[in-house]
Design brief:
The protein is mainly alpha-helical. The chain is 76% helix and 0% strand. It is globular and about 70 Å long.
Length: 270
């Protein structure tokens, strides 16, 4: 085999891996910039994303700018509550759509995708019109943000849990029944543990979408100020570097949850 043939063979064997690494590197470049800028001291520069000097002040004074702490806490509170309700309702709906046959099931599956396929400006303005016509026009705030977030998170939860349910092997439940387990025991000891990873994934996705949302929130927030809205307002004057600290923390928390889940799965399989 000539050197050229060996080179072609090596490229053929490693091309997909190399392309995958390049795509991952391209994806993580913005995240790396956010992490880098969380250590940036730009107090003397108008260009907030020009690295001036290394500092730990941003990490020791995370909530330095006015209203930043309140906006972060508000976003976390809404995201947690919206995730909880959307996950419960979405899981129940997913079970109904996968395990039961009823009139209108096909239409329900189609309608579920509409919030995911519609532009956020359309959904946000539609929800605003709904709130105004329902008497919430002068009371936009926490409640309307919460309802709006549950509405658009619900579809993502249903689709995620449905995908997990559709991939389950029915023979496992039938085997539990053959071993004299009743329906309740089969559900809690067989079905629910198998579906739980999908439910957790749906909850994490729902929390991320809720915490990150700006367009729908901005249209239905009233006088409330969530973290994305704070960042948008601060950008008019110059984004404080503490915003990068919050972004880095959220990324690290997400990675930690994923790693903990993977380690737990490997420990159970060992």
């Amino acid at each position: 085999m000539t050197a050229l043939q060996r080179l072609r063979r090596w490229i053929g064997e490693h091309l997909v891996l190399a392309l995958g690494i390049l795509v991952l590197a391209y994806t993580f470049v913005p995240i790396a910039i956010v992490v880098l800028m969380s250590f940036n001291d730009n107090s003397e520069s108008r260009n907030v994303y020009a690295f001036q000097e290394f500092t730990l002040d941003n990490w020791t004074n995370i909530f330095g700018p006015d209203q930043m702490l309140d906006s972060v806490l508000l976003s976390i509170e809404i995201a947690l509550l919206a995730t909880l309700l959307a996950t419960i309702l979405g899981t129940l709906a997913a079970f109904a759509l996968v395990r039961h046959r009823f009139r209108g099931r096909g239409a329900a599956n189609l309608i579920i995708f509409l919030p995911m396929a519609s532009p956020e400006i359309v959904m946000g303005s539609s929800l605003l019109a709904l709130f105004v016509s329902s008497g919430f026009g002068g009371q936009l705030g926490f409640v309307t943000i919460f309802i709006a977030h549950v509405m658009f998170c619900l579809s993502f939860v249903i689709v995620t849990v449905k995908a997990r349910l559709s991939g389950l092997d029915d023979n496992l439940e039938q085997a539990a029944m053959d071993l004299y387990a009743n329906e309740s025991q089969t559900f809690w000891r067989v079905t629910f543990p198998l579906v739980l990873p999908g439910i957790i994934a749906a909850a994490l996705l729902s929390f991320s979408l809720s915490f990150d949302d700006f367009i729908i929130t901005n249209l239905n927030a009233g006088q409330e100020l969530t973290f994305p809205m704070f960042v948008w307002g601060a950008a008019q004057r110059g984004v404080p570097m503490q915003v990068n600290v919050i972004g880095t923390l959220m990324f690290l928390i997400a990675i930690s949850i994923v790693l903990a889940g993977e380690l737990g799965r490997r420990r159970r399989e060992a």
